[in-house]
Amino acid sequence: MKEDKKNAFMTLYTVLESLTRLIAPFVPFMAEGIYQNLVRTVDKSAPESVHLCAYPKSDSAMIDKKLERDMDAVLNVAQLGRACRNTANIKNRQPIGKIYLSGVDSLGELFIDVIRGELNVKEVELGAAAEEFISYTVKPQLKTVGPKYGKLLGRIREHLQNADGLAIVNIVRSGGTYSFEADGISVDLAEQDLLIEPTQKPGYIVETSADYAVIIDTQLTPDLIEEGYVREIISKVQTMRKEAGFEVVDHIRLYVAQNEAIQSVLKNNQAQIAKETLSDAVVFGRAAGYKKEWDINGQDTLFGVEKVN
């Protein structure tokens, strides 16, 4: 068992063991049942009952505020990143090349690895400016601009259409006034004088919260697309193993038929797929054993799995 898995199990054990002592006064029989199954089965020296254990005490020395802040950032980024994927209609198993994080200027490599894993992304860039990935169309707000500059309305609309929308938005949203001349007359526009319509730049999806913004690059290279197929194939074969009633440690023979494109992907990545699915052999062009048809990213494919004796 890998060290991170050991740490995860020990953390879960510590949480549940502490929880049984916390809830014992309120749900005594449930707490006792959990305690007997969880603690007494592995530690015969532990008290005979959860009701003979000391009540947990808080240890302020164990509180790590920086860790909490960093994990809060990771959770927010993961949530926004998944929203970006949904908007772009990109499956979670399809790797993406790069994401940009706004509102996160520094983060440890451990947390960046968590983000890579959660969002299935190759590269994470910190400290990005969300505004660089959003363009703005700015129009005059007729109910405020009309009464002040009636005859100039057409010229104001034309000027705003040709101006730098991002620059205007930055000025007015920081409390400033956007000023220019139209037919020799000075025009001063505040945020309430403008209709601001954001438009995301082609090839990027942006999702924002109060403190963070996540921008994903939706352009998928051929290598990324092939990796997405590989992950889908592995997922489908693992599902078939379970449906066929195989044990986790059972080795199999994998069959693939009907679709040349999927067969090509499998041939190119046979070693990885075989390792992940415990396939001792891969047979192309026919199917045997437990068979099932799948739609893999729009590619209809027939797989078969057969346990190797």
**Sequence stretches where pLDDT stays below 50 over 5 or more residues:** none
- Structural class, by secondary structure, is alpha+beta
- Would you tell me the overall average pLDDT? 90
Largest sheet: 4 strands, mixed
Count of helical regions:
10
- Largest sheet, spatial ordering of strands: 2-1-8-7
State the order of secondary-structure elements, H for helix, E for strand: HHHEHEEHHHEEEEEHEHHEEE
Give the DSSP E fraction (strand runs of 2 or more residues): 15-25%
Q: Helical proportion? A: 40-55%
The whole-angstrom Rg is: 29 Å
- Global shape: flat
- Number of beta strands: 12
CA(first)-CA(last) distance:
26 Å
Task: Break the fold down into its secondary structure elements and pairings.
Blueprint (H helix, E strand, L loop, with lengths): L2 H21 L4 H13 L24 H24 L7 E7 L6 H11 L1 E5 L8 E7 L1 H8 L3 H10 L2 H9 L4 E5 L2 E5 L4 E7 L3 E5 L4 E5 L4 H22 L8 E6 L2 H9 L1 H8 L1 E6 L5 E7 L2 E9 L2
Parallel strand pairs: 1-2, 9-10
Antiparallel strand pairs: 1-8, 3-6, 4-5, 7-8, 9-12, 11-12
Helix pairs in contact: 1-2, 3-4
Give an overview in words.
By secondary structure, this protein is an alpha+beta fold. The chain is 44% helix and 24% strand. The strands form four sheets. Strands 2-1-8-7 form a four-stranded mixed beta sheet, covered by helices on one side. A four-stranded mixed beta sheet has the order 10-9-12-11, with helices on one face. A hairpin with a 4-residue loop joins strand 7 (204-208) and strand 8 (213-217). The protein is flat and about 90 Å long.
